[in-house]
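[agent] plan:
  1. take the single chain provided in the ticket
  2. run structure prediction with default settings
  3. attach C-alpha cells to the ticket
  4. add a short note for the reviewer (M.T.)
[agent] executing step 1
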Amino acid sequence: MTEQGHEHGIADHLHYWTLKLSDENPFLQIHLDTMLITILIAAGMVWFSRRLAARLTAGTPGGMQNFVESIIEFVNQTVKDNFPVENPLIAPLALTIFVFVFLCNTMDILPAYLMGHIASLFGIPHFRPVPTNDLNLPAAMAVCVFVLVLYYEFRLKPVHFCKELLFEPFTNLMPAPLKPVIMPLNLVLKLIEELAKPLSLAFRLFGNMFAGEVIFLLIAFLLLGGGAVGMIVGFFVGLGWSMFHLFIGLLQAFIFMILSIVYLSIAHQPVEH
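[agent] step 2 finished; step 3 output follows
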C-alpha cells in the first residue's frame, strides 16, 4: 500500500458513524457509534452488577466476587484518603467512573479495523469502537462532574464561594478604593480557573486515547502493508503496544476518577474563619 493510501486509510478510519441533524450546522450531529458502545457498556455494567448481587455469598466468595470486592475496596480507600467528609454519593460515583472509563478505554485493544469491517457488513460506512477518543463523551462526563462540584459549592458554602469568586486572591490584596476596579478581573480569572477543571478532565482523557488509536492504526498499516517482515515486526510491536495501552487506559481511568474526587473534595472543604 502506498504512503498516500496509508494516510487516506487512517483518515477514513477517524470518521464517526454520524447522524446529521442539519447540513448547515456541523455541530448538530450525533455520533451513533459512540452512543451505541456507551449504552452497551453501561448496560453490561448494570447486568453484571445485578447478576453478581444475586450470587453474593458471605462465607466463601468465588473468584469473581473476590475480584470485584478488591476493586471496591481499592476505590473506597482512595475516596477515604482524599475526601474530607462523609458523603455516601462519592464512593459509588468514583467506582462507576473508574470502571466505566476503563471499559471504554479497553475497547482500544481490539484489532484495528475489526469493528469497522464488521460494521461495513451491515452497510455502516464508518465505525469507531472507543467512546473515550470521541471528545463528546469525556466532555459530557467532565461537565457532569463540574455541575456536581458547583452544586456542592452553592449548597454547602454559597456565601463563601461567591466571596471567593469576587475577592480571592487579588481583590483582597488591593486597597479599598481599588477593590471595585479589580473585582471584575478577579471574577474572570476565577471563572477561568473553574472552567479549567472540566477542560483538563476531558482533554486529558481524549488526548491520550486518541493518540493511542492513531498509533494502533500506524502499527496496523505496518502489519498489513510491510510484507512478511512488516507483518512479523508489526505483530510484536502491536502486541507490546496493546499491553502498554491497556495500562494507559487503566491509568487514565484512575486519573479521571481521582481528579473528580479531588474537585468534589475541594467543594466540601470547610470554610476557615
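[agent] step 4 note for reviewer: Residues 1-7 have pLDDT under 50 and may be disordered.
[agent] ticket updated
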